[in-house]
Specification:
The protein is mainly alpha-helical. The protein has 43 helices and twelve strands. Strands 3, 4, 5, 6 and 7 form a five-stranded mixed beta sheet that branches. Strands 8, 9, 10, 11 and 12 form a five-stranded mixed beta sheet that branches. Helix 25 crosses helix 27 and helix 30 (about 645-655) runs parallel beside helix 32 (about 690-715). It starts with a helix and ends in a 7-residue tail after the last helix. Its EC number is 2.7.7.89, 2.7.7.42.
Length: about 1000
């Protein structure tokens, strides 16, 4: 381009290739610095093409054809030809190549007698493709006895069918892209394009069947009836430019001839036009390719999964014997529209949804038009589910097209009219992008271009008729529209199931159509609510009235219900949400937080639908809700805190209280806050079990210390206190292994100060201990704060508090082996630190015998354990699933480790630990047990501890027995990280398997049984 003015002009027209000017001059459209006379409209149409450079290169190739002079002359006068031609050759390299290879097809893009107007219907297209393979369109359909057959067979038929198919696509794509090249031309609606693509596919099936008949049964002697049922988008009359065509074959009889015909149809159509997928047939790819009608019905009635009935929503006879196709459609329809009555309907649909979402690669999820968040599948899945739920009683919803079904759902009141219109608009936009991306090279793709691929984005924006608004480039406009529509689809998908339901139960006036309560109950039942009527009552209570809170609930509940529907117990979750909402009705930030922080709402529904403990605590500790927000960049999750900082903060807050009652109330409140925080982090999978137990133990220790400090202030007298006191943690408290419902096992030890006598010191310290126990153990709606001192010398009949000297004397004279075993977990947790250290020095020779454990003592420990196994298990408990006393459970593992400690701690100092898991690791490192055995014991202890905690979280009260079945078992499994809608039996199997292996180790290591 030697002329600067012409170069600038061509660049403004989008023609940036160096040879563009020479090409235009050769075509006779450009001279010097502008278009030649009469070529101006051509240049502007070329400039509006999705890719002007590609369009010009293709036209240059087309100019070598004998027809070019005629085409050139028509382009100067035929506005329709300009729009269709330049829209096509700039929008599809594949169809541009077809036009260059077959230039005589150009009239298909022109106005006039050769331009089909109105566009061809299915019958005309079928006739065109049948003629292409030499079949008589007037003959009975191929697939019926005596039906028509093709003249061409083999490679000749495939080639003819391929060309005829591309001809049909050429004409349709030209009309579809015409308004790109000439904005004054009418825009072809996506619904019409998709319907015509389905018509073309059906015509291909009919022509391919005619060829197959000519190859397999040329004389018509077999008398086979074969019907081809279109499924998926073809059956729904909403096909893409490039898509597999899903089909099912029905044969009478389903003999070898029928199977050969079906196989040849697959091969012919696949080689000529598009892939045909018959995997939606009964038993999928492993099932027979052709079945009789009775064979299909027998399978659907006995074996079909829910997803197969969902697929049959779009089943439509497409080719072959029309009567057999009609019989098939009529026979399967009742089965389809009763699918929602199946007991496993919700679980099947949820599982299918997970499988579909798992198909997309993680790095493509954000760009996948079909399967990504806010993609086409979100719309299709929601519409199909609503159809299955409500189509049982409302035949108006029985439409195969997604957009037609969505329109019917809106008209019949199952979807708000505005929501339905917005969802349809976004669906059309996403399908338009999908069509343009597939047209480009006639390849199957659903992937939106990457944000850094500016050239691809610019081409797509122009092909999709995105226009600049004067402030933003078309690429920016495209990205904004893509993000806006994807977000709108995702948001509407979340509320689509529920918005009409809420309108029905709300007392507020609404402009949208109302959903009847019977339909609302049917939807709730289908989505997993065991008591739809109860759920409706909760929704009425939440959305009733004209308050701002009711209005916000109207907005919130669609998303919240969607989350609840996937929880283990939606009924309990909705009741809990109502309780929390009513309790926090006067908290100004509560609903605003749920509305503005989507992660808070999502996390809260998981918690409420799983746990009874969380809502009980939440109504009295609502501030924890703020911690549910997901962390921003560079921040840790607010639910995770340093236990030492938490303990220091708790003690400081309690110390500020003016009296004992206020201090106790503050300690309870802070403990409630921390208990809820830890429970939330646990249920959300943010804390491993060792950190959960450590955090719970740290809170208990802080509460004990704060309560003791407050009691000392309350009982203070003039002068120094008469005694020092230390609290020794025992059992799980000493091991820092507390669960949510664990008591605090302790020993109280004191020491006189100054001239105080032992008697006076014990009396003072006993007052402190009783005050602490009484204040913490007072009735409360929170989980109990039981301070249990029954492990003290002489048990309940012995004094609550002893001096250090008294403990020394008792252990020297009366101590039994079980007390040495109990002391293995002793550690100071509160009170005077120096006194606690001296107590530890006192008991170390007792619990860590230098010479090991005498054989008689080991026998006594085994005898006691056997008696515990026989007598302590509650009546009716299942030993296989009792977390504490069951086989391979907590007691089994802990007693085994403690026996090893008593036997070997004298020679293995690393066994001096109060932690079960640390002790097992030390035993394995010292070679006392194999690493495999240590791992089995650790696994049994861990799963039993986690399960015991989960029972408390789910039921809201302590329990050692796992639920045997039902929603409690499902909730326990979900709390442990198993899929909420999966089979909880998977968890039970793993629990039994893990604890069974641990018990086998116990039998060998603790009881000395031989290895089997």
């Amino acid at each position: 381009m030697t002329d600067r003015r012409s170069g600038t002009s061509l660049a403004r027209l989008g023609l940036t290739e160096p040879r563009a000017e020479a090409t235009l001059e050769r075509l006779g459209w450009w001279r010097g610095d502008g278009p030649v006379e009469g070529a101006g409209p051509i240049m502007w149409a070329l400039a509006r093409s999705p890719d002007p450079n590609l369009a010009l290169r293709t036209v240059d190739r087309l100019a070598a054809a004998p027809e070019w002079d005629t085409i050139d002359a028509e382009l100067r006068t035929d506005l329709g030809l300009r729009g269709r031609l330049f829209g096509l050759v700039g929008g599809s390299t594949a169809l541009g190549d077809h036009l260059v290879a077959h230039p005589d097809r150009w009239p298909m893009l022109a106005d006039g007698p050769d331009r089909n107007n109105p566009p061809p219907d299915r019958a005309r297209r079928t006739a065109n493709l049948l003629r292409a393979v030499g079949a008589d369109p007037a003959a009975p359909p191929a697939g019926t006895p005596g039906g028509g057959r093709a003249v061409l067979t083999g490679a000749a038929a495939v080639s003819a069918l391929r060309i005829a198919h591309r001809d049909e696509l050429l004409g349709l794509a030209g009309a579809d892209l015409a308004a790109v090249g000439e904005p004054s031309l009418p825009v072809m609606e996506l619904d019409d394009v998709a319907a015509q693509l389905a018509d073309i596919a059906v015509a291909v099936l009919r022509a391919a069947l005619a060829v197959a008949v000519a190859e397999v049964d040329p004389d018509g002697e077999a008398g086979t009836r074969l019907a081809i049922i279109a499924m998926g988008k073809c059956g729904g009359h909403e096909l893409n430019y490039v898509s597999d065509v899903d089909v099912i074959f029905v044969g009478e009889p389903a003999d070898a001839t029928a199977t050969r015909l079906a196989s040849r149809v697959l091969r012919i159509a696949g080689e000529a036009c598009f892939q045909i997928d018959a995997n939606l047939r009964p038993e999928g790819r492993h099932g027979a390719l052709v079945r009789t009608l009775d064979g299909h019905l027998s399978y659907y009635k006995r074996w079909a999964k829910t997803w197969e009935f969902q697929a049959l929503l779009k089943a439509h006879p497409a080719a072959g014997d029309p009567e057999l196709g009609r019989e098939y459609a009529e026979a399967v329809a009742p089965l389809v529209w009763n699918a929602a009555d199946r007991d496993d309907f919700v679980a099947d649909v949820q599982a299918m949804r997970r499988r579909v979402e798992a198909h997309v690669r993680p790095d493509h999820a954000g760009r996948h038009l079909k399967l990504g968040p806010g993609g086409l599948r979100d719309v299709e899945f929601a519409v199909q589910l609503l159809q299955l739920v409500h189509g049982r009683t409302d035949e108006a919803l029985r439409r195969s097209s997604t957009l037609e079904a969505l329109r019917a759902l809106s008209e019949r009141g199952y979807v708000g009219r505005e929501d339905g219109a917005n969802l349809a608009a976004s669906y059309r936009f996403l399908r338009l992008l999908e069509h343009r991306l597939q047209l480009q090279r006639m390849r199957r793709t659903h992937l939106f271009p990457a944000e850094d691929d500016t050239d691809a984005l610019r081409w797509l924006a122009r092909a999709a008729r995105i226009r600049t608004d004067g402030r933003r480039d078309v690429v920016e406009m495209l990205l904004a529209e893509w993000n806006r529509n994807a977000h709108r689809v995702r948001r509407l998908h979340e509320k689509l199931f529920y918005r009409p339901l809420l309108t029905a139960v709300s007392r507020l006036p609404a402009n949208a159509a109302r959903l009847s309560e019977s339909a609302a109950k049917a939807r709730l039942a289908a989505l997993g609510w065991a008591s739809p009527e109860g759920a409706l009552n909760h929704l009425r209570a939440l959305t009733g009235g004209v308050s701002r809170a009711a209005a916000i609930q109207q907005t919130l509940l669609p998303v919240l219900l969607d989350e609840l529907a996937t929880s283990p117990d939606p009924d309990r979750g909705l009741l809990a949400y109502r309780r929390v909402s009513e309790a926090l009705a006067t908290t100004p930030w509560y609903l605003r937080l749920l509305r503005d922080e989507g992660a808070v709402a999502q996390r809260l529904m998981k918690l409420l639908g799983t746990s009874a403990l969380v809502p009980d605590l939440l109504v009295r500790a609502p501030e924890v809700l703020r911690l549910l927000a997901t962390p921003s960049s560079g921040r840790g999750d607010e639910l995770i805190k340093d236990p030492a900082e938490v303990a220091a903060s708790l003690r400081t807050a309690v110390a500020r209280q003016p009296d004992l009652a206020a201090a106790t109330a503050a300690a309870r409140s802070l403990r409630r806050h921390e208990l809820l925080r830890i429970a939330c982090a646990d249920l959300l999978g943010l804390l491993p079990i060792e950190q959960v137990c450590g955090a719970l133990s740290s809170v208990w220790v802080a509460v004990l210390q704060a309560a003791l400090d407050s009691a000392e202030r309350a009982l203070a007298r003039p002068g120094p206190p008469p005694a020092r006191m230390a609290v020794i943690g025992m059992g799980r408290l000493g091991g820092a292994e507390l669960g949510y419902g664990s008591d605090a096992d302790v020993l109280f030890v004191c020491e006189p100060t100054g001239e105080t006598s032992d008697h006076e010191a014990v009396r003072y310290a006993t007052g402190l201990a009783e005050t602490v126990r009484r204040q913490l153990g007072a009735p409360s709606p929170d989980p109990a704060l039981v301070v249990d001192a029954d492990l003290r010398p002489e048990g309940r009949s012995g004094p609550l508090v002893r001096t250090l000297g008294s403990y020394r004397e008792y252990y020297a004279r009366w101590s039994e082996v079980w007390e040495a075993q109990a002391l293995l977990r002793a550690r100071p947790v509160a009170g005077d630190a120096a006194l606690g250290r001296r107590f530890v020095e006192l008991i170390d020779p007792i619990r860590y015998p230098a010479d090991g454990l005498p054989p008689a003592a080991a026998t006594e420990i085994r005898r006691i354990k056997a008696r515990v196994d026989a007598e302590r298990l509650p009546r009716g408990a299942d030993r296989a699933t009792h977390t504490k006393l069951g086989s391979g459970g907590l007691a089994d593992v802990e007693w085994t480790l403690q026996l090893l400690q008593l036997q070997h701690v004298g020679s293995v100092p690393q066994l001096r630990t109060t932690s079960t898991l640390d002790g097992l690791r030390a035993a394995a490192a010292a070679g006392l047990i194999s690493h495999e055995d240590a791992a089995e014991l650790a696994a049994g202890w861990t799963i039993a501890t986690r399960a015991r905690n989960a029972v408390m979280l789910v039921k809201g009260k302590p329990g050692d027995q796992l639920p045997r079945s039902g929603r409690d078992l499902a909730a326990v499994a979900s709390a442990l990280g198993y899929p909420a809608d999966g089979d909880p039996g998977v968890f039970l199997d793993e629990y039994r398997r893990t604890t069974r292996r641990a018990r086998a180790v116990v039998e060998r290591v603790f009881y000395g049984a031989p290895r089997t």
